[in-house]
Here is the input.
Amino acid sequence: MAKNWKTKLIHSDAKIPKGFRSLSVGVQRGSTVLFPDAASVKDDWDQYEVGYTYGLYGTPTTLELAARICELEGGFRTLITPGGQCAISLINLALLKAGDHVLIPESVYTPNRKFAAQVLRRFGVEVGFYAPEGGAGIQTLFRENTRMVWCESPGSITMEVQDVPAIAEVAHRAGAMVVMDNTWSAGVYFDAFAHGVDVTMQAITKYVGGHSDLLLGSITTREETAWRRLGATQQLVGCAASPDDCSLALRGLKTLAVRLKAIEDATLTLARWLSERPEIERVLHPALPSCPGHEFWKRDFRGSTGVFSIVFQPRFSKAQVQGFVDKLELFEIGYSWAGVTSLAVAYDFHATRGRPEYGHRIVRLNIGLEDVDDLKADLRVALDSLG
Ligand SMILES: Cc1ncc(COP(=O)(O)O)c(C=O)c1O
Here is the structure.
């Protein structure tokens, strides 16, 4: 049929060569997905079962990232979310209901804690917090209605490594599922499913993305039932990840191994050096015996990554600890981590949560890809300035 140029803008007959093959996964954006005929139209989120139906449930770019994460974690299937915190809230919304009881470690990522305290409680879920280093001792906190136990190992900022298999055994005996924030290990240094976890999430924002320029999350399940509940809930919550961001994460995956190796080596060098400095009371790095739960890291992990914390000696005031951070030149100040730039953030646990003994003396470091001797020199100058 002859077409007006305005129609051609939308229904074009232009031709290009076929058969392009490259080393990158194409970015496929799209809300509308086309059906071959009227009878084929369906609104079903499970595109593995029924084929592509709507961009909300993932384009081939999104599903490629999901499949790659799933392959690395060894799960049944993976969902991609617009950020790590979205993965956390979606897990809670999909797998808990009013009247259930959930247990969350004191050391959990703060927005995870706040979602439980401020949203789950509002919807009638009972929320309890437990000491992360308690292992099987968590048993005493179980109730008739305990349905879920969160783990995060190591914990955010305070870095406690958990005895996940012991917690999982207690949880499974009580009929509760175990959910883990596996972001620190990048999903590769801790095999969560082999250690009894049922559902994992990661902030893909961190090591998989690797360059501080995207926000994504993943949820991976060990089996199909949880995946179905999560997929159906994702449809109704309507949280879709951007295929552009997914393509950046797919690119990040290609260099994940070399980035992790360089970061691990530099981080261990700096953590050990810091543990010898007189200004530092304690280095909270899972691979060092000074970290709570170090023995579980040694038993269960294949490696370590680039985030750890240092605790200053009690003689240092809050202003001095902040002064140390301000004095650093290569370490930038900012949230999030696992990119190529080293970061430092000072926390004050008097005001916020468990571990009051660290008070204002705790600083979290993220080690990036700068030269390790330059980073050491930067830390040395800032420490020396404390007097
Ligand atoms: C351990 C952990 N989990 C989850 C998140 C949330 O990830 P996002 O920033 O992608 O929402 C973060 C972010 O800092 C984190 O540190």
